[in-house]
Amino acid sequence: YAMLLSLIFLIVLVAAVVGFVFRHEIKTNFESNLNLALRDYNVTADRHSEAVDTIQRTLHCCGVQNYSDWEKTEYFTQRGIPQSCCKSQDDCSEKDLKDPGKAKLKVFVDGCFFLVTSVMESKMSVVAGISFGIACFQLIGIILACCLSQYITNNQYEMV
């Protein structure tokens, strides 16, 4: 049991170190995937489009760096900027969303990449604290399992 807990502890430790070391690559990968999701965005209910809409509605952002990122997409030529970028759903018409000048006043102008990464970094201390707490319980479990094993081997009972 102590060996199994030790193995799990080492796996979690390695995952934490790898995540810390490669955090810049994770950001770059996220940015490129967000750009791909914008490029391939469509109105059909695919999960990438739904994810983009959810991020934009939740964080009150639009595009990767800013709302003008949508101008480079095929979706923009057909329908303009998506409704999920609108500050107020009642005040956004498709005509306004096709005109970047008018759209600037009606959509969120901040990009999602910066907001997502800043939210993730702000929550990182909470994740680190919870991970540290779990690691402490695992270490206590390892120590207790070793003590129990030692106690059992010291107090061998005679077979009858």
From TrEMBL:
Protein's membrane topology: Multi-pass membrane protein
Stretch forming the signal peptide: 1-19
Residue stretches spanning the membrane: 126-152
InterPro entries in the record: Tetraspanin/Peripherin, Tetraspanin_EC2_sf, TSN6/7_LEL
Keyword Ribosomal protein: no
Places the protein is found: Membrane
UniProt keywords, alphabetically: Glycoprotein, Membrane, Signal, Transmembrane, Transmembrane helix
Keyword Cytoplasm carried by entry: no
Domain of life: Eukaryota
Coiled-coil segments: none
Gene3D superfamilies found in the cross-reference section: Tetraspanin
GO-annotated cellular components: plasma membrane
Biological function: May be involved in cell proliferation and cell motility.
Entry-linked PANTHER family: TETRASPANIN (PTHR19282), TETRASPANIN-6 (PTHR19282:SF169)
Protein name according to UniProt: Tetraspanin-7
UniProt organism field: Apaloderma vittatum (Bar-tailed trogon)
